[in-house]
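Data deposition worksheet. Section B asks for the primary sequence of the deposited chain exactly as it was used as input, without tags or linkers unless they were present during the calculation. Section C holds the resulting structure in token form. Section D is free text for depositor observations; keep each observation to a single sentence. Incomplete worksheets are returned to the depositor.
Section A, Depositor: J.P.
Section B:
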Amino acid sequence: MRFPGAFVSHGAPTLAIEDVPASQFLRGFGQELGRPSAILVVSAHWDTATPTVTTAPRLKTIYDFGGFDPVLYTIRYEPPGAVEVAARARALLAAAGFAVASDPARGIDHGGWVPLLLMYPAADIPVLQLSVQSRLDAGHHVRLGQALRPLREEGVLILASGSATHNLREAFRAAPGAPTPDWVTEFAEWVARALAEQRIDDLLDYERLAPHARRNHPTVEHFVPLLVALGAGTPGVAPRRAHASTTLGVLAMDAYVFD
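Section C:
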């Protein structure tokens, strides 16, 4: 069964326990996509020098955050690992010229378990994670997705998890209930138009061309998962914007499906 690639914004860890438009969307998104044979999560919260995949037989819950509601630290999302898919992913990446590593001990960070808890709460689908390389450029991440594209034909859901905008300092300063500022909306809409119009070169140069790019992404690790999903999509086919909302005032929670 052929699966699309997807990008979701995971926001703050509290998304797992909140009833907001983004969490409501994710609760239905798994049903919309269907049940894959495995899920490869490209998480903004695993940043390494070399592309690395998890190979643990079961992924333990990682609480890679602090200072949030204590109930979050009681949540366990521990799906079976996907060792065979990890080997296949490593082979595809190596064939495309990437140096690639594996990590037999790492579990699943909140960039993975927060959206998956909402999408597939039973935690019974095999999962592996792939790291991002924030020191490398946008083109590197598109090529990662291109190399992994064959997994979609093998029933694997490539789920890139980051954030359409991600300025935590601004989020903590935002007044509750304040309207979404223009600098957030203008960036998110620029990205949506560039994807719809297949302006790939513009997306590769988003830091220079997109309005307020640096303000929305002071660091790049939450944006580059989108580029992996873009690479995994079918060439020449525009993605579908599956969701758009804002949380914490300035975090755009857009999601895209790459057929």
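Section D:
Strands lie at 5-9, 38-47, 52-54, 101-103, 127-132, 156-162, 240-243, 246-247, 251-252, 255-258.
The mean pLDDT is 96.
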